[in-house]
């Protein structure tokens, strides 16, 4: 079975530009989460989406937005890029019970490495 | 708010030595999960274990073992007879059982196993 997939693998942008990162969850998983990992640090939570609705948001500016599609894939958008947005962006998928409790752990994709010049 | 602290930034040992990675967490909630993830140079986070706050039983999986102690808010990870392939950055993380499945990660411990 395919794991979590992310595209692109690498991306180079300049300050002020906009970027869209994509993620496809494991088949059967309806939740997708996004994390930002700056070099040398642990991942930081950005968003979680479940059944196409935002379930949680981390402490990130409004320049960061996301959405989830009917097939449960997701996009992370970042506007007005800053040098500090350079990081590895990780997507994770997971399953939930109808009661809202996680069924299992979050499975991570290989990440998209974004460099802002 | 939740917080995870991994005080050991880097550890370097010789192959076949045992090594313990420390993790201390803070949360006011009584129901939560604790995790360990491994991040090899490729960058992908690999899940190792999840523990429920209700279950303080220690766990062993091959050369890996985990010691969960609520009294000290610690969830330590031991690798027995380390191998070069164990070299990676290891992250401890916490998430609450209810609400958003937000993982709060520690800073990570870079483990280097020398031949």
Write the layout of secondary structure elements.
The complex is a heterodimer of chains A (117) and B (115).
Chain A: E1 5-7, E2 10-13, E3 19-24, E4 31-37, E5 44-50, E6 53-57, E7 64-68, E8 74-78, E9 87-94, E10 107-108, E11 112-116
Parallel strand pairs in A: 2-11
Antiparallel strand pairs in A: 1-3, 3-8, 4-5, 4-9, 5-6, 7-8, 9-10, 9-11
Chain B: E1 3-5, E2 10-14, E3 19-21, E4 24-26, E5 32-39, E6 46-52, E7 59-61, E8 64-69, E9 74-79, E10 88-96, E11 104-105, E12 109-114
Parallel strand pairs in B: 2-12
Antiparallel strand pairs in B: 1-4, 3-9, 5-6, 5-10, 7-8, 8-9, 10-11, 10-12
In short:
The complex is a heterodimer of chains A (117) and B (115). Chain A has 117 residues and is mainly β.
What does this entry look like structurally?
With 117 residues, chain A is mostly beta strands. Chain A is 0% helix and 49% strand. Chain A has no helices and eleven strands. In chain A, strand 4 (31-37) and strand 5 (44-50) form a beta hairpin. Chain A is globular. By secondary structure, chain B is mainly β. Helices cover 0% and strands 53% of the residues of chain B. Chain B is built from no helices and twelve strands. Chain B has strands at 3-5, 10-14, 19-21, 24-26, 32-39, 46-52, 59-61, 64-69, 74-79, 88-96, 104-105, 109-114. In chain B, the strands form three sheets. In chain B, strands 2, 5, 6, 10, 11 and 12 form a six-stranded mixed beta sheet that branches. Chain B has a four-stranded antiparallel beta sheet with strand order 3-9-8-7, with no helix packed on it. Chain B has a two-stranded antiparallel ribbon with strand order 1-4. The A-B interface holds A 31, 33, 35, 41-45, 48, 55-58, 88, 90, 92, 94, 96, 100-102, 104-111, 113 and B 4, 33, 35, 37, 42-47, 50, 91, 93, 95, 97-108.
């Amino acid at each position: 079975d395919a794991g979590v997939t992310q595209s692109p693998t690498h991306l180079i942008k300049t300050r002020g530009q906009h970027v869209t990162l994509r993620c496809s969850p494991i088949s059967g998983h309806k939740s997708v989460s996004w994390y930002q990992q700056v070099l040398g640090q642990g991942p930081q939570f950005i968003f979680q989406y479940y059944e196409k609705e935002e379930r949680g948001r981390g402490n990130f500016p409004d320049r960061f937005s996301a959405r989830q599609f009917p097939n449960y894939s997701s996009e992370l958008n970042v506007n007005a890029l800053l040098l500090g947005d350079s990081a590895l962006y990780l997507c994770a998928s997971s399953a939930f019970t109808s009661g809202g409790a996680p069924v299992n752990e979050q499975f991570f994709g290989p990440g998209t490495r974004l460099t802002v010049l | 708010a939740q917080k995870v602290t991994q005080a050991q930034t880097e550890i370097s040992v010789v192959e076949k030595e045992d090594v313990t990675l420390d993790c201390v967490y803070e949360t006011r909630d009584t129901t939560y999960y604790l995790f360990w993830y491994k991040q090899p140079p490729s960058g992908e986070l690999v899940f190792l274990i999840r523990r429920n706050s209700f279950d303080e039983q220690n766990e062993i999986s091959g050369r890996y073992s985990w010691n969960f102690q609520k009294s000290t808010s610690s969830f330590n990870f031991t690798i027995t007879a380390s191998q070069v392939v164990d070299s990676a950055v290891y992250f401890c993380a916490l998430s609450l059982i209810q609400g958003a499945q937000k993982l709060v990660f520690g800073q990570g411990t870079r483990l280097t196993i020398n031949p």
